Structure formats: structure tokens, C-alpha cells
Amino acid sequence: MSLDQLLEWIPTGGAEEALARQIEMDRLPRHVAIIMDGNGRWAGQRHLPRVEGHRAGIDSVRDVVETSARLGLDVLTLYAFSVENWKRPATEISTLMMLLKRYLRLELSTLLRNNIRFRVIGRTDALAPDIMEELLAAERKTSTNTGMLFNIALNYGGRTEIVDAARRAMASGLGPQDLDEDRFAGFLYTAGQPDPDLLIRTSGEMRVSNFLLWQIAYAEIWVTDTLWPDFRCRHLLEGVLAYQKRDRRFGGITPPVAAGVK
User: Rounded to two decimals, what is the model's pTM?
Assistant: First the structure.
């Protein structure tokens, strides 16, 4: 994808176009991860049931996935359902799963048209058979696509992922002396993928909520007060522009001249 392909899709003369033209296409984050937060508050502000916030959030998913692919990201990961979310009311969980199935059925053509490869990360063995059937079908039908990888984190927890990776490492016969960070990363759900360069959280909350704990060690974090159902292409572009203004040092120090030291 390219800037031209993104401009073909967004409104001419609007805020989205102005933001897109500021982006340095050779300095894009390879992997953007998003904590989609605020569905319940969005519904509450409108005196609607919480599930209506989840329904509205599907439009945001659709917009962000296509924007990310057209922009040229390598990987997009959305946090859809955590291992802790099973504590929510059964009706809310049921609605979330139904919306997931509907999204996959309705948006498969969009994923294929935009050359997007779909993948689910998390403890999928705990999901209902009908949900797994939809997930596996989407993975299979998009498996030969060569564009952006779209991860959806489902029944996911960062600590759970690290525990699962440790168990897989032990089962492989590796001893402690055989492991280093690179080799251990190969046992994570995201094995073979670049770590997130940019972590976005909606709704203004300042926490990472057990999301990609290993992988976000050096990610830039951008928080917006926008609630997830209101998050669109414009907000994603704002996040990317904020990322491009950061000085990423990965634990190093700023060169003396840049730091103002003579």
C-alpha cells in the first residue's frame, strides 16, 4: 500500500487528507497495537446498554483495519477480549462473540480485497466451537495474502502468554542455558512478528491492561481521550504522526548535540 492508495480512500479536503500528507511514509511504525477501550462509557453517555457500545465499536474496527492496510503497516494487533473479560455478564460476553462472528463473515471480502492476512492470538482452546470455526475459516481463507497481518487478541493475557511460552520452551527440551530473549520470543503467540513500535490506547486510561507485556518493552505509547466507538482513520493518523515525532533510543542516550550538550 502507499500514500496514494490511502488518499484514494479518504475524503478529499478533510482533516484525514491533511494528516495523511504529513506522514513520512519511510518512517512508519511496522507494528501498531491498540487497546480498544471505552465501549461501555460510550454507551453510558448515550443512556444505552453496554452491548450497544460494542456494536458501535465494530465500525471503528472496520475503519482502522482498512486504514492500517492502506497506510502500509506490516502488523496491526487489536485487543478484543482478555482472559479477565470472562468475569463480565454472560449476556455481554455472548454479544461480543456474536459480533466477532458477524464481523468475520461480513468483512472477509474486505480482508481479501486489501490483501490482509488474519490471525487470532490467545488461548483459543477455551473458545466455543462455533467461534473457533469462524476464526479458523478466516485464517485459512486469508493465509495466502501477502499484505498486512491483522492479529486479533482473543482470550488473551500478557502474563498468560509468557507462561504459555515458558511451557512450550520446556516441552521443546530446551534448558535454561539454551534460552535467550530471541529464542524465547519464538515461543510467544507473536513468534516471527516484529514487536509493536506504537501502542495506542483509547478512552484516556493510562495503563497497558496486561497486553503484549513482553512485546511492548520499547513501544512508544500514545493515549487518546477518544472512546473506541468514535475512533476513526483521523485518530490513527494522529497517533502515527505523534510516533514519528518521538526520539526512539531503545535504552540508549541522546547524542550530545541533540541533547543540547556542548
Answer: 0.93
- Which has the closest alpha carbon to 57: 78, 27, 84, 86? 78
In the chain (262 residues long), the average pLDDT of successive 10-residue segments reads 82 93 96 97 96 95 96 97 93 92 92 96 93 95 97 97 96 89 97 98 97 97 98 98 89 56 41
Residue of 82, 75, 79, 172 lying closest to 123 (CA atoms):
82
Using alpha carbons only, give the angle 160, 145, 57 rounded to the nearest 5 degrees: 55
- Asked whether the beta carbons of 15 and 241 are under 8 A apart, the reply is no
| Correct CATH for 30-244 of 3.40.50.620, 3.40.1180.10, 3.40.1280.10, 2.120.10.30 | 3.40.1180.10
Distances (CA, A) of 161 to 34, 110, 129, 213: 17, 29, 21, 9
Q: What is the 3-state secondary structure (H, E, C) of 81-115?
A: EEHHHHHCCHHHHHHHHHHHHHHHHHHHHHHHHCC
DSSP string, 209-256: TT-STTTTTT-EEEE-SS-GGG--HHHHHHHHHHHHTS---TT----T
Q: Which residues are catalytic, by number?
A: 37, 85
C-alpha cell recorded at residue 189: 503467540
Read off the C-alpha cell for 78: 487489536
Contacts of 172 (CB under 8 A, 6+ apart): 187
Integer Rg of the chain from CA: 19
CB 58 within 8 A of CB 36: no
Residue ranges covered by each domain of the chain: 30-244
